[in-house]
Structures are given as C-alpha cells and as structure tokens.
Amino acid sequence: MRGSIDIKYTMKQFSILLGASVVITLGQAQAQESIEPKEADHKLVAYGKEERQVLHLWLPKTKAPAPLVLHYHGGGFVVGDIREKTHNRTAAMCNAVGIAYADVEYRLLNQAMLHEIMNDCSRAVQFLRYNAKKYNLDKNRVASYGESAGASASLWMATIDDQADPKAKDPVLRESTRLAAAGGFGVQATFDVIQWPKILGLPEDKTPYWGMIKSAKARLGEKRFNELRKHMDMLHNMDKNDSPMHFSPGKEGQGVHSQRFVDVLEKRAKEVGASLIIKPGRQSLIQFLTGKLKTKPKPASGQRPGGKQARKPFPKHWGDPPADQTSDYRKLPGDYGFGSGTLANWIQKHLERDAEQKPKDEK
Predict the structure, then answer these.
(1) What string of DSSP letters covers 142-203?
(2) Which DSSP state fits 252?
(3) d(CA 80, CA 165)
(4) Would you say the C-alpha torsion 226, 227, 228, 230 has a positive or negative sign?
(5) Helices 89-96 and 282-294, packing angle to 10 deg
(6) Contacts with 186 (C-beta within 8 Å, 6 or more apart), sequence order
(7) 231, 227, 232: which is closest to 209 by C-alpha?
C-alpha cells in the first residue's frame, strides 16, 4: 500500500484479499444506547475539489468551541462511502457530551494513490480547523478513529510529522494535521507492504496487495517508490511525541486484521516511548477519545494569566526559533511548556545535538 499503490484491481480481487471488513461503530455504555441517531447538521460538505472529498458534520449545542472527532470508514480503500449515512448514533452520543463529529469520505485506490488518499484524510482535518470559527470548533482538540482502512488512516495521522505547509497558496493546507488522540479497530501497523510478508509470516505471492506493490514499483521507479515507502511507514514514523493511540486487538491468522500487526505495533511503541493502548471494546475507545478531548491542555508552569506563557529562554547558541509555525498545540520537549509541532521538532533537534556534543565525562 504506502503511497505507492495506484493499480486498479477488481473489486472481486480485493474482496478475496481483505475478507470481511471489520465494521464496528463506537458506542457508549449500555445506558446510552437509548440515544437516537441524529441527522447531520451539515451534509456532504466539500473539503476539497474531488468528488469524494466530502464529509457530514454533526455539531453540539455549546457556546464554547467544541472538540471534534473525525471518523474514517473502512473498506480496504476499495469500497465504502458516507452518502446515505446521514443519521448517526455515535455522532448523537458525541454531541450529547459536547463533542462535534465528522464522517469523512475519501478517494479510493481506483482514483488515487494511497499517499494521496492519506492527503484526503489529513485535508479533512485541516479544512475543519480552517473553518473552526464557522462551525464553532476547538481546533486544538481534534481526534480521529476508524475501522480497518480507517483505523490505519488514523494511525498514519497520529504518527506522521505535521503536514501543515505555512507557505501553501491554499490556506487550508497551512493548518495543522496533528491529532489529540487516534484509534480504531482492525488496524494495520504499516502501509509499507514490503514488510508484510515478514510480519504476517507469509510468502510474498500470498501476501495481500503484493501484486499491486510490484506493479507500482515498476511504474514509479525505485527512488520514488522508496521515498513513498518511508513516508507511509507508520512503524518508522512513530516516536514519543506522537498522539496518544488506542487500538483494538487483532484477529487470529495472517489476514489484514491479524494480531501480528498489533504485536509489531506494540513492540515499536515500547521501543520509542509512544503512548499506545491495546484494548477491546467500543466503550473503552469512546472513553479514551472523549477523555482526551474533554481535557484541555494544561498550562506550563510559569504561565501568566491570559495565556501568555513565561517560557524559559532557549539557549543562545540555538539561534531564533522558526518564524513560521503550525497552529497545533502540544507539550514541548525539554520542559519548555506548550507550543506548536514545528517548535517541538526544532527544540528536539537542538536537545539531541547538544547531547551528542557533550564531553564524555558529562554524559
């Protein structure tokens, strides 16, 4: 898969590869099952120019800007849509606790490459952040979840560096893609299918999507193919600064929803210190997401009233921090309080460089 997948397979072939897609909807505790599905407040809102770049949006009745959950549907990137799904119980339950809900449709593999589909998923976040005032949304508290392909899209969103481009002509693309939390059911640990035979314990010719990968490599050329492999590898991209994550256990066997993917994901999270919960159940996931969204970022010590933070000064030899910064908000490394993902990356690089340059007797 991984950005390099653009070959048009038949629906039958994909169905054989994928098996039945895990279609699980978030739910609250049994007492909340009585909540009736709610009709979307805004239907088929275009977040881009492509036909499938649309979303439904449900908004709570709150005076303060509302946190937001985005849902990405499953279907192996070959099927799935939101066209007739304008009534949603999960959206109603989110709205009931003051959280907005968006159901996102994206292009499929017969229309776009996988990295372009991921751009659809991230653009939906950027679009809603750009229109935060219009819809009364809190752009600092955004989470996502999904099933199967949608779960993996959420994992990619949680682990990729912020895709905001401060110099983009399109103002939507200047917005942050960072999430406060991400989760889902039936996740794949990486979109780099080259790793799948080893992960799943399958020969290459029996590995899902393998034929597509071979064709894509021949079409793209080795250099571009390898660039996209790296870009779409959630295992490689994962680090301790990633969004908190919650995914379900996998299934027995060697399919696309295998526990083997979850095992690899857990191992990698422990290696890099990423925050990852593996736990079954719809209630567990909804509590995780709402818990992360209902908790506002804590001000750093020394923060002044009115939100102006008395951040400790950066070392002089670091120079000036980046002038163009993304609009997300996260904890900064080195006890520098809170700030943008751009600033966090800048601080982390300098901290690592300083650590490398310390004399041995100081380490």
Answers:
(1) EEEEEETHHHHHHHHHHHSPP---TT-SSGGGGS----SEEEEES--S-S-GGGHHHHHT--
(2) S
(3) 29
(4) positive
(5) 40
(6) 21, 22, 24, 74, 147, 148, 151, 248, 250, 251, 256, 257
(7) 232
Phi-psi map region of 255: left, alpha, beta (phi>0 left; psi -120 to 50 alpha): beta
Q: Are residues 118 and 263 in the same domain?
A: yes
pLDDT band at 232 (very low <50, low <70, confident <90, very high): very high
Per-residue pLDDT, 311: 64
Q: Is residue 4 part of a domain?
A: no
Total domain count for the chain?
2
Q: Are residues 341 and 199 in the same domain?
A: no
Q: For residues 238 and 356, state if they share a domain.
A: no
Residue 6 lies in a domain: no
pLDDT one-digit tens code per residue, 30-70:
344 568 999 999 999 999 999 999 999 999 999 999 999 99
145 lies in which domain range?
11-294
100: its two tokens = 């907005």
Place of tokens 């640990």: 189
Between CA 189 and CA 178 the distance in angstroms is 19
Backbone angles phi, psi at 139, to 5 degrees: -70, -10
Tell me, yes or no, whether 306 lies in a domain: no
For residues 260 and 224, state if they share a domain: yes
Other beta carbons within 10 Å of 325: 18
In the beta sheet, which residues pair with residue 147?
185
Residues paired with 338 in a beta bridge:
331
**In this structure, are 254 and 346 located in the same domain?**
no
Quick one: pLDDT band at residue 8, thresholds 50, 70, 90?
Answer: very low
Q: If we measure between CA atoms, which residue out of 101, 80, 69 comes closest to residue 23?
A: 80
pLDDT, tens only, 143-185: 999 999 999 999 999 999 999 999 999 999 999 999 999 999 9
Asked if residue 305 is part of any domain, the answer here is no
Q: Crossing angle, helix 114-130 and helix 149-159, to 10 degrees?
A: 70
Query: Does 320 lie in the same domain as 261?
Result: no
- What CATH code is carried by the domain that includes residue 196? 3.40.50.1820
- Please spell the DSSP secondary structure of 283-321, one letter per residue: HHHHHHHHHHHHSPPPPPTTBPTTS-B-PPPPPGGG-PP
